[in-house]
Specification:
fructose 1,6-bisphosphate 1-phosphatase activity; alpha/beta; FBPtase_class3; 27 helices; Metallo-depent_PP-like; EC 3.1.3.11; 17 strands; hydrolase; single chain
């Protein structure tokens, strides 16, 4: 190893005792049970449901309470769990129902129980790690209470006095709140978000803020996430797509109010050329309230941005023949006089067309007004400070796929042929498939993001291809039939043919081949997948291929729940194995507080180990072993070597 590096490291470990202490500490950590991993997917802006799942650890908090307080009734367990989930609100409710003396008694009992639960939840961690999770202002007090022993009575009055004094000084609420968030943090060591934070739901920005403050998380990009990243990186067609989706789901306030992007130029264009069209009216859920004027404005904007999108897509298809998407230049297939389209050898009538801005001789050409609008939108998008924070976090914490603790985490699919072989795509003259293809896709995403001033370069166009291309690992379908859904009544044209992956992933042999392709052990590993909602209502099983494939998109998004019959899956992976948790519809925080109801229901056992998995066997463990190797070299280089020289044994270090 470079001796200059060891010299720099020696400035931190300036005494032999420091190196030895750190080595002992790291070696000890390797033998702890691995922490609990929490997997979520396809959040689609459903912030409140996501928050609740995060706070309850997909039922892990309540399980800890049940394991610790074995004699409690279900009502007691539910009430205490609710306090851990929403401590501020629960404390207010309890205070209203009790007199001061009774409330003080309740506070004392509750603090003692919270301390016990904190201690129970922290048993897999070092004291140092637990200390970092504690509320800063109460670290000393909590540590005194956490590590107390009842073996001797010497300190019994001392501990009691601490709690009584906390209550008399009016600090009990703050302490309970701090302990509640500490417990939430300790029951989940690491969070995986397996794609699609954005689109459809109303609060993706709040999810991003939560993730940015979360103690340990990573993200596997979903197709909707890459759409937003592409727009910020300079892709006008990605920008048009995301605005269209926001209009479709009545979420334009995310763009305008949250990220500060001015939509007035787009509205002016829409008012000039477009009228009311049923196909372009926003999808409205029950709690949405729109005036007729607002509904009409969104409908017009929806049309204006959709037409801009179709034109921009045609431009990419023409300049990137290697994408093989010429058949999707549908505006060139339209008979504008007859209002029909020739598609796949058939002629279909068109409904509710809005082609006022289309040049029939050059359908892909933007009007000057449209060019000005999309340029202004892109400028505003790239100069949104809040969006910049969120997109940079997505890039820095995210990846297209992740090998983690022996499992493959991927949002969409691995493009396959019908026979199960890896589907090949020629990219800049090189035939790529499997892991190599996905690695190339990720390089293009990062390159596009690094050069946002380049709006029509290959990397930026490739980001759009990931959204809609046949060989995209995020899209996973032959073609996206957006145009057909708007303008053609015949539903046979709406069908989007899935990549063979989605049928073949039921087979264990296919999943094993995929795990090998990504350098993972097929006997130990699993593929953890999102993107396609599991239709539990129709009997679909999220656990496939004899447990090798686990699909955790069960419909967080309200738009999918009528189809799936549930409100999402999450996955827990602790030192004993994996458990899949099915969730019911999340009504509100108030419902949880008043009724003690929870939204997780069915736990399905995925994989149970005969022995507990240690930190040594994880990604974190491998990094720790690298640190240990470096410290071993430092110990020899700075201290033991010196000792050999001083004792006239200069060659003894060769025995090490």
């Amino acid at each position: 190893m470079d001796t200059n590096y060891l010299d720099l490291l020696a400035e931190r470990y300036d005494r032999e005792e420091k190196v030895v202490t750190e080595l002992i500490n790291l070696e000890a950590i390797l033998n702890l049970p691995k922490g609990t991993e929490h997997f979520v997917s396809d959040l689609h802006g459903e912030y409140y449901a996501f928050q609740h799942v995060l706070r309850n650890g997909s039922g892990n908090v309540k399980q800890k309470i049940s394991d610790l307080f074995k004699n409690w009734t279900q009502e007691e367990t539910d009430a205490f769990a609710t306090l851990v989930y929403y401590p501020e609100e629960k404390l207010q409710l309890v205070r209203k129902t009790l007199h001061q003396d009774s409330f003080n008694t309740w506070l004392k009992t509750t603090i003692e129980r919270m301390i016990k639960l904190t201690a129970f939840a922290s048993t897999k961690y070092t004291r140092s790690k637990v200390r970092k999770a504690l509320p800063e202002h109460f670290v000393y007090i909590i540590e005194e209470l956490l590590y107390k022993t009842d073996e001797f009575s010497n300190k019994k009055e001392y501990y009691s006095k601490i709690i009584n004094r906390i209550i008399s000084l009016g600090q009990a609420n703050k302490l309970i709140i701090g302990l509640a968030y500490t417990i939430q943090r300790l029951v989940v060591d690491h969070l995986h978000v397996v794609g699609d934070i954005y689109d459809r739901g109303p609060y993706p920005d709040r999810i991003m803020d939560t993730l940015m403050s979360y103690h340990s998380a990573d993200i596997q990009w979903g197709n909707h996430d890459v759409l937003w990243m592409g727009a910020y990186a300079g892709s006008k067609v990605c920008l048009a797509n995301l605005i269209r989706i926001c209009a479709r789901y009545n979420n334009l306030d995310i763009i305008e109010d949250v990220y500060g992007i001015n939509l007035i130029p787009l509205l002016n264009l829409a008012d000039k050329y477009y009228h009311d069209r049923q196909s372009f009216r926003p999808k409205v859920v029950r709690e949405d309230r729109l005036s007729e004027e607002e509904r009409l404005q969104i409908t017009k904007i929806h049309q204006a941005i959709a037409i801009i999108q179709f034109k921009l897509e045609m431009q990419i298809m023409k300049r990137r023949p290697e994408f093989h998407m010429e058949h999707r230049m549908l505006l060139e297939c339209v008979n504008f006089e007859k209002q029909t389209i020739d598609l796949n050898g058939k002629t279909y009538p068109l409904k509710e067309t809005c082609f006022a801005t289309i040049d029939r001789d050059d359908p892909g050409r933007l009007l000057d007004e449209e060019t000005q609008v999309i340029d202004k939108l892109l400028y505003s998008m790239q100069h949104s400070e809040k969006l910049a924070r969120h997109m940079n976090f997505l890039v820095n914490k995210g990846s297209l796929y992740l090998n983690y603790n022996g499992n493959l985490l991927i949002h969409g699919c691995i493009p396959l042929n019908e026979d199960g072989s890896m589907k090949q795509m020629t990219v800049q003259g090189k035939p790529l498939s499997g892991k190599q293809l996905l690695d190339a896709f990720e390089r293009f995403v990062r390159d596009s993001f690094a050069h946002p001033e380049e709006t029509d370069d290959f990397a930026t166009d490739m980001v759009w291809y990931l959204w809609t291309g046949e060989n995209s690992s995020l899209f996973g379908k032959k073609e996206m039939t957006t145009f057909e859904r708007y303008f053609i009544e015949d539903k046979e044209t709406h069908v989007e043919q899935k990549n063979p992956y989605y049928a073949l992933r039921e087979q264990e042999s296919i999943c094993r081949n995929i795990l090998r392709e990504f350098d993972l052990d097929p006997d130990e590993g699993h593929i953890i997948n999102g993107h396609t909602p599991v239709e539990e209502r129709n009997g679909e099983n999220p656990i496939k291929a004899n447990g090798k494939m686990i699909v955790i998109d069960g419909g967080f998004s309200k738009a999918y729940q009528p189809k799936t019959g549930i409100a999402g899956y999450t996955l827990l992976y602790n030192s004993y194995g994996m458990q899949l948790v099915a969730h019911q519809h999340f009504h509100s925080k108030e419902d949880v507080l008043m009724n003690g109801t929870d939204v997780f229901s069915v736990r399905r056992l995925v994989d149970r180990r005969l022995r507990r998995k240690k930190v040594r066997e994880t990604n974190v463990g491998r990094e720790l072993m690298k640190q240990i190797a470096v410290l071993d070299q430092l110990l020899f280089y700075k201290y033991q070597k010196k000792a050999c020289i001083q004792t006239d044994r200069p060659n003894e270090h060769f025995l090490v």
